Amino acid sequence: MGACNASQIVDLFPAVSPEIVVREARLEDCWEVAETHCSSFFPGYSFPLDVVLRVDRLMAMVMGFSIPPGCQRTCLVAVIGSSVDETICFGSDDFKIGAFDAKISLNKGYVAGILTVDTVADYLPRKGPLRQRRTGIAYVSNVAVRENFRRKGIAKRLIWKAEALAKNWGCRAIGLHCDLNNLGATKLYKDQGFRSIKIPEGATWPQPKTSPDTRFTFMMKLVNNNNTQALEQFR
Fold this sequence. Notes:
Elements: H1 6-11, E1 20-24, H2 30-41, H3 49-63, E2 73-80, E3 89-90, E4 96-97, E5 100-101, E6 104-105, E7 110-118, E8 137-145, H4 154-168, E9 173-179, H5 183-191, E10 195-196, E11 216-222
Parallel strand pairs: 8-9
Antiparallel strand pairs: 1-2, 2-7, 3-6, 4-5, 7-8, 9-11, 10-11
Helix pairs in contact: 2-3
Domain N-acetyltransferase: 20-224
Protein name: Acyl-CoA N-acyltransferases (NAT) superfamily protein
GO molecular function: acyltransferase activity, transferring groups other than amino-acyl groups
């Protein structure tokens, strides 16, 4: 009998009602995060390109998560076969490698979904004639769920956790780009209270670096209801 890789092991779990825990990704989750990302966004690639993509994504996550001073970036994971109450971790809460918690768990579970949230503002329109980086707005990217675990509320729970982090960071709003052809994702975000923001005529806003044929809509949601100006400033 041959050895199973991580994605094959996940397939052995019942996909009906596994226990799902959303938490910050740890260093030990790196490969499964890379697998989830590549199998979701590049499903047509086969060996050896699929391995190359996973290794490239892994190195980007571990080595390329440099962020400007004062900014935050965290990778969230939804894991199955893990319980918050039963998990035993070793390591410091304050030490991170890239966007990953450096703690090690004896019961980490398997990654079923991922999401990245940050305050770096790379994909938010700059403000003023000096094109200053925007502050107080969290940005969500790389939302992906393994195929066997889709339509089970995992993406919704990842979004909830991202909103909680944004509030904890003191953000007034949270934003994201959504593929206009992905009707399921568009509905998900609208159901969670996100609104499409119209790009001013003649303006050029940054967009995720994907296929040139992909068309995005920029969506935002207030996470601090005391500030009603956050969405209006983007009109």
